[in-house]
Amino acid sequence: MKLGANVSVAKTGLLRAVEESVSYEADTYMIYTRSNRGGPARPIEQFNRDEALCIMSDHGLADPVVHLSYLVNLASQKDDTFEYGVNLLAEEIKRVEYLGFQYIVMHPGSHVGTGVQAGVKRIAEGLNAILTGREQLYICLETMAGDGSKVGSHLEEIAEIMSLVEHRSRLAVCIDTCHNYSAGYDIVNDFEGFLQQFDDVIGLPLLKVAHINDSKTSFGSHRDRHANIGRGSIGLDALRRIVRHEVLETVPLILETPGGHYKHEIALLRGLTDTLPPEGSAESDEA
User: Fold this and answer.
1) Fewest CB atoms less than 10 Å from the CB: which of 19, 24, 151, 256?
2) Please, are residues 3 and 265 in contact by the beta-carbon 8 Å criterion?
C-alpha cells in the first residue's frame, strides 16, 4: 500500500512537504499549492522542486497528489465564480505539471440551489473550457458525502460529468472513505460491492487516488465530518481491510484526519500498532 497524508508546504514549499512525509515514514503525500483563503499563489518556482525530488527518490516517496483549492466551484451559475474557477484550475494545471505530479484532486462543485443536473452540466462546461487533451496529468473528481448542494455524492453523477467532457482521458476519480460511507455506500460490510458498483458505473482503472478517513457521523448521514482512524463509525478493522485491498495496491492513499497524528495512524493502518490515536476535533475536508 502507498500511505501518506495531507502535508504542509509552508516556507520551503515541496521541501517541507517531503521532509514532513519522511518523518511520518510515509510512501506518498498530498499538498495544496495555494491557500484556501484566496490571494495570489506563491510562485511554483520557489517550491524547491529539484532538491525535494532528490529526497523523494532517496526515501521511496512516489505518486504525490495536489488538492485543488476549495475556492474553485465549477458548478456555479454565477459567471464571476465560474470564470474564477476556470482560470484558477487552468493555472493550477501548469503549476502541477512544473512539479511533475500526475494527480490534481478537485471537488466537483456545489450547484447552490440550481439542481444536480444544472451543476453536472456546468462542471463539464468548465472542464471543456480548460482541458486540451495534452495535459500530462489527471484531474481526479472527488466523490462527495451528499452534504448541502455538492455534486458528486453518487457515482452516477461523477460518471455523467465525465461523459460530457471532450478530453475525458484526462479525467479520473478520487474516492474518500468518509464521504462514501456518509453518502450511503456500505464500505464497512461490503467494500467489494462498492468497488463493483464503481467498476460498473465508472470503471476501476479510473480510480487513481483514495482519501482514507474515518467518519464522525453515522452511515448515510450525508455529513462530511472526518474522524481519526479507528475513532469513527467506519472503524479500524474496515479501514485496514480497505487499504490492503488489491485494487488499491498502487493507488496513493491519503489521510486527511484531524489532530496531525499521521505517523501514528499510518503505523496503525499498517498493523504496526493497535493503539488508537488521540481523538482530534471532527473536521470536514474543508476545515
Assistant:
1) 19
2) no
Each residue's pLDDT tens digit, 105-148: 999 999 999 999 999 999 999 999 999 999 999 999 999 999 99
DSSP tag of 110: B
- Residue 274, C-alpha cell as written in the block: 493497535
Q: What count of other Cβ atoms lies within 10 Å of the Cβ of residue 27?
A: 18
Q: Residue with C-alpha cell 463493483? A: 196
Rounded Cα gap, residues 260 and 267, in angstroms: 14
β-pair partners for 207: 173
Handedness of CA 119, 124, 127, 129 (dihedral sign): negative
Phi and psi of 212, rounded to 5°? -110, 105
- Are 212 and 229 a contacting pair, CB within 8 Å? yes
pLDDT in tens, 222-260: 999 999 999 999 999 999 999 999 999 999 999 999 999
Q: How far apart are CA 257 and CA 225, in angstroms?
A: 10
Residues belonging to the active site: 37, 67, 70, 107, 142, 176, 179, 211, 224, 226, 256
Q: Is 140 helix (H, G, I), strand (E, B) or coil?
A: strand
- Contact by Cβ (8 Å): 97, 131: no
